[in-house]
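Deliverable D5.2: sample structural annotation.
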Amino acid sequence: MRSPNVLVQAIVVADDLDHLDAIHAGARASLLARAAHPDAPWADWLADERFTKTVRRATRAKVAALVDVGGVPSGPTVDAVAFAPMTYAEFPKPVARTQVQGTDFPRLATAVIVADPLVRIDVLDTLTTGKATAQAAHALWAALGDTGPTADDLLFDVHTVNVATLTAAAAGPDTWAVHDAGLTEIAAGTLTAVAHRTPQPAREGR
């Protein structure tokens, strides 16, 4: 049962994306929302340690329209938007009308690759798109949430991996492992995502 006082971050992804692109866009928007809404109750939300999120889907046009009610876009193409933490009762009506069910998209690739990523995020390959997006966002917050990256700095890869590969990644140095609270889809304590910083290339002038 939903607690009326729990703070939740809503993330809405465009339903024409594939699995990996939705995860990447949703996680990116999740962290960018902090800079866009600095006076929101981030500290209270983070104090829960679960960083509770609800990942939803909508048509691309409806996702873009959510910017007008406080949604922070993942980038210029608005593949996803994320909101500041609020209670379910405080959700703007257009957000409350978005769909939670069926948030599982086609798996057309096993990775989203970007140039010179700050972080690599590995996500368990058996999760639905909605669940994987929430877990990837949690991992990204753990790795970068204290640094307050700008849109230009927020560079990360996302990879879907099996449980053996994910377990091995969690045992590596400089990593942030996410274990699910067990509220939906999987058992409590399941390892769902791992973030790890990637070696950065030497840059001219440094």
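Annotation notes: The chain has six helices and nine strands. The chain has a mean pLDDT of 89.
The annotation will be released with the project's public dataset once the embargo ends.
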